């Protein structure tokens, strides 16, 4: 079993390499006082919408009591949240990203993120494969869960998509036959 500090370093290294390879169009990690992280994986994160409300995005994993290793106010790592899986959680200027780092073939292929919306908001599927947070009264998009991407350690694309079951967004990553680690990126932005 990996030591927690070694696990955090391995997850950070994998995520950093992939983000650098993807280029400057990726949202940068940045402190955001409107984002409130829970201490444990199950506590998830509260994120803002464009209309001043907040939604909650949870991390539904077997090791839900895993405490985050806070590296900076805008960066934390949940080590061992699932078999061979860590999450590098970043705060961005307009939201959050949950870089899911899959270290081996025994890791699951599905990751669940329950979403709690304020009254008057709903998730609406988009043709891109992501979900918009829509204000029901005005029809305005007040937040967005972008279509996930994933790639392996050779920077090859790995198929990733979402499905919605009730109020839970499930990210599916088809990582069989990939070179590990594989990094997948749920990204929310207001």
Q: In total, how many beta strands? A: 14
Count of DSSP helices? 1
Q: Termini separation (Å)?
A: 38 Å
Beta fraction = over 45%
Q: What is the overall silhouette? A: globular
Q: How much is the radius of gyration in Å?
A: 16 Å
Spatial order of the strands forming the largest sheet? 4-5-6-7-14-11-10-9
Order of helices and strands: HEEEEEEEEEEEEEE
Q: Descriptors for this entry?
A:
190 residues; mainly beta; eight-stranded antiparallel sheet; 10% helix
Secondary-structure topology with pairs:
Elements: H1 4-22, E1 36-37, E2 45-48, E3 54-57, E4 69-72, E5 75-82, E6 85-92, E7 95-102, E8 110-116, E9 121-125, E10 131-135, E11 141-151, E12 160-165, E13 168-173, E14 182-189
Antiparallel strand pairs: 1-2, 2-3, 3-8, 4-5, 5-6, 6-7, 7-14, 8-13, 9-10, 10-11, 11-14, 12-13
Explain how this protein is built:
- This protein is mainly beta.
- Helix content is 10%, strand content 45%.
- The strands form two sheets. The chain has an eight-stranded antiparallel beta sheet with strand order 4-5-6-7-14-11-10-9, covered by helices on one side. The chain has a six-stranded antiparallel beta sheet with strand order 1-2-3-8-13-12, with no helix packed on it.
- The protein is globular and about 45 Å long.
Task: Describe this structure in a few short sentences.
This protein is mainly beta. It has one helix at residues 4-22, and strands at residues 36-37, 45-48, 54-57, 69-72, 75-82, 85-92, 95-102, 110-116, 121-125, 131-135, 141-151, 160-165, 168-173, 182-189.
């Amino acid at each position: 079993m990996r030591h927690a500090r070694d696990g955090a370093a391995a997850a950070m290294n994998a995520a950093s390499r992939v983000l650098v390879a993807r280029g400057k169009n990726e949202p940068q990690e940045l402190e955001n006082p409107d984002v409130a992280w829970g201490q444990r994986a199950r506590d998830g994160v509260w994120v803002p919408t464009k209309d001043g409300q907040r939604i909650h995005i949870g991390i539904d994993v077997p090791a839900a009591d895993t405490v985050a290793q806070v590296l900076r106010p805008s960066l934390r790592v949940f080590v061992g949240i699932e078999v061979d899986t860590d999450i590098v959680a970043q705060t961005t200027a307009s939201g959050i990203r949950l870089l899911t780092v899959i270290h081996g073939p025994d890791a699951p292929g599905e990751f669940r993120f329950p979403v709690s919306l304020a009254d008057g908001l709903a998730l609406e599927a988009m043709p891109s494969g992501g979900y918009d947070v829509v204000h029901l009264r005005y029809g305005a998009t007040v937040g967005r869960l972008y279509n996930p991407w994933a790639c392996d350690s050779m920077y090859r694309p790995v198929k990733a998509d979402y499905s919605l079951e009730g109020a839970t967004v499930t990210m599916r990553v088809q990582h069989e036959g990939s070179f590990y680690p594989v990094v997948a990126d749920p990204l929310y932005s207001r």
